[in-house]
Amino acid sequence: MSKISDSKPRYLILRERLENDIAKGIYPVGSLFPTEEQLGQTYQVSRHTVREATRTLAERGLIAKRAGFGTVVCAKQATAPYVAALGTVQELFKYTEATRLEVLEKHNVTADMALAQTLDCERDSQWIMLNSQRLTMDKATAISFTQIYLRPEFASIADQLHGRHKSIFKMLEEDHQQPIVQVKQDIEATLMPLKAAKLLDVAKNSPALHMRRSYLDARGRLLAVSSNLYAASRFRLTTSWALQATSGSKKSSQN
Q1: Is the pTM of this model over 0.85?
Q2: Burial 85-116 (b: 16+ CB within 10 A, else e)
């Protein structure tokens, strides 16, 4: 290939060319990306230029390094991350209203030991499991692969999870007269499993964020669970706290 020559910084030109190649399928999603040395020889650029170009590709979620394997192509196009604030129940309501859920599969499941430990529920308890994807309201961009677990007595909620729908929290309280006294949210870094990777069009075992919300009643009984997998490049969680001034600081401000 001809040597890169342009008024733009060389690493930006290289990044744009590599993005085009990824979009065209020259480097398919899930495939091993060329090494820095290979890219340098192909495009006749320095190792530094390659390193900067691939760094920005990684920041845009197109490629990712996997220990002991190499660099893998994660997505065909860079997607601006969806930014959500989920630090309060009110913010959860806003998130639900700004997105939509599309249910893909529905199954009746019995909690074996593994599922009981994962959900923190009784072993052999019965659940309705929904495999779904959450999309932005304004465009069909998949934000997450979402598994929802409902007690059988709340089965009608599954029929309402489409288009602009109320949150599970509100459906439990308003439609089933089931007060929720606690919403427990667990967040952890993980690797994207195959089923979710295919749905989100990212590489299997690429970086992911797992967020699980559990809805409990006054007795501590688990009523429903929402288990969400987000691609690292598609989602950003933001939380802020307003801190009250201490009594000491109040006194000093009055002096």
Answers
A1: no
A2: ebeeeeebeebbeebbbeeeeeeeeebeeebe
